[in-house]
Amino acid sequence: MTYPAAERAWHLPEAELPIAPDILAACDFDELIATILLRRGFNQPSAIRAFLDPSFYTPAPPESLPDLTRASELLAQTVRRKGKILIWGDFDVDGQTATALLVDALQRLGAHAVYYVPQRATESHGIKVERLQALVAQHQPDLLLTCDTGVSEHSAVETAQALGLPVIITDHHELGESLPRAQAVVNPKRLPLGHPLRTLPGVGVAFKLVQHLFAIFGQTRHLGALLDLVALGIVCDVAEQVGDTRHLLQLGMDHLRLTERIGLQELLRVAKLPPETLTAERLGFTLGPRLNAVGRLGDAMLAVELLTTRDRPRAALIAGSLERLNVERRLLSRQVEEAARAMLEADRSLLQEAALVLHQPEWHVGVLGGVAGNLAERYARPVVLLGGNGAIVSGSARTFGDLDIYAALAQAADLLHTFGGHRGAAGLSLAVQHVPALRKRLSNALLKQRPEALQVPPLHIDMLCSLATLDTDFAKRLQRLGPFGEGNPPVVLATSNLHVSHAATFGRDNEHLRIVAEDDDGRTLPLIVWRGADLAVPEGRFDAAYTLSLDACGQLEAALVGLQRHAPIVVESESALQVHDWRRDSDPFARLEALRAELPEAQVWAEAYNRLDFPHFQRRAQLSACKTLIIFTAPPDLETLRAALSITAPQSVHVIGAPPPLVRFEDLLRQLTLALKNALTHFKGTVGLAELCGAVAASPEFVRRALDFLAAEGRISYQEDSQQRIQLAHPEAAAACRAESEAHLKRMRAAYEEMEAFRRYFSLMPLKLLLKPSSESAP
């Protein structure tokens, strides 16, 4: 979580348009899903269906990628003539999965493929010419095929061409000033911004190439068996989940949960993670670190072997090795992170920069990327960590938010020995004496991207809710919006007025914090702060922002992402009206009594309650000018709300918005009938429309339609004058018209549904929109 959480402002949900019927239908009539998607900018039913269900999405054809058709045909020619293919991959998880996918796919076609993945410690990223020459001499390949690398390897491609070796590059990293002179360069960054294939990671590019290749050979039935690798690479490379990338991830997650890949089965076993409980988040936090550990601290060739082997004992042996390397990675990462934080505490001036650039000679460069990501989240800015005690130091960069770390590094290219990557992550090396200059240059570049880069961005809240709302069904509904990740962040919920029941650290190294939050009704929710054991437990009342999911045992799990001291949400409108939002309080009556004790002169607008039992409640017809208005029951329509505000002209409004005591259609009609009988008996049949509406907490439209229905039924007769006074009378004897009666009943039910729909919107929509004066409203 961003540190410190209490300093991060909250961006509360913006107003959304009423949910149109076709939008609601696209969400399978789930208002929760529809509300969140509308707030996130989804306003077309077709886009919503494609987002929620991959079967409604139309993927872009593979040949949309530049050079892909040429690459596929060249591969097909090599396969047909039994040529040997040398696959050159990369040691991160995207590179591992891309390499494994190409090996698996080519083996299914009967091709002869060998692969190589460079070691992080001795070779770093890219294609080293000396190693390439040695591999060509050893294997005598007929084609060089890269994955997740190659787009900047001009020298290596020239060397391969000089050796008579055709080259196909598949990569997704940022393009340089020119492309290598390969036979094909397949890279989604060659596509325009917004193209559905542009955010594919390396494994996604490899899959699209194989998709076209399999079509040539009539083997597309095997594509599904490769999707588990695609999902693993997308998640662990933190690829932006839009377009085809999200589509492939959705399909891949389903295949991962049922994977037949022996290596993944063994890796899940050592990680103690049941495959049926896999989510993108668990994938990134469990399998990802284990595969990254072997790529960063060991030999990534083992990872590719694990992902392609059909030998279970061998897979179990490799999975055990990865587990041991992961333990080592955790230890090294913790040491580096503690040292980095100590540097920042010792020199607070470093926190004045838009990027944190830190160097220690003893830091293991293999773990710097993961630690940089953790620190970027903690300090809410990009981080560059560098290790090495020679003249040239190297390391990793990770961004924060929407800042482009690759573009910022490009602005300092003259200081760098090497660099490469994409907007979210990069690797680099430079002369050690240039580290201070890099810090300044990088910070200036980031401030040009976003002048407010030094400010912690606000936390966007998707929905406000009480603990009473939360259950496993609610969490399962939220999961429909997944997989979550870059481009589709987890849904952030917020609950107000909580206190700590108890708290404790947990985890293998007690590095995590669990805070059990409790509301006034005794409901509790465990809030987990990952890597937050050092953070202070909140005191007193607080509001919490969190993401909600189900743990491996199917129980609710909430990850804390923000804290604020508890206070009602106050919105200043243009007319200086102070609005206090209490709609999320779990006990409306307790809140009302507290407000009345604090504000004894306040006027309480509440309808449909018995006047003898609640003499302090005012219905709309009894409202008068006041300084403070408490809206206890949710109004039935916008016009009634605006009219009440016009009459009372308050300086301050406290909104509780509880449901009225009459909710069911039948109860409403029965109570209205009693009110009409009372008017006929005691007031000579004369009653104001507002008085009838207040008696049942209903809209004028509903009451008028109800009067029409009762008149058609032959139970009353009535007239309404220009002053909205109703004159009732007993009807003359006449047979009721069934058809007319049914038509009025239908209109009355429609008015009831509109009233209930408005109350649902009233509970969700920002009050700054609802409480605008009518002159400011849209027509």
TrEMBL record:
The keyword Hydrolase applies. Residues 84-234 form the DDH domain. Residues 356-445 form the DHHA1 domain. Residues 461-551 form the RecJ OB domain. It comes from the Bacteria. One of its GO terms (biological process) is DNA recombination. Pfam families: DHH, DHHA1, RecJ_OB. The keyword Nuclease applies. Coiled coil: none annotated. GO terms for molecular function: 5'-3' exonuclease activity; nucleic acid binding. This is Single-stranded-DNA-specific exonuclease RecJ. It comes from Candidatus Thermofonsia Clade 1 bacterium.
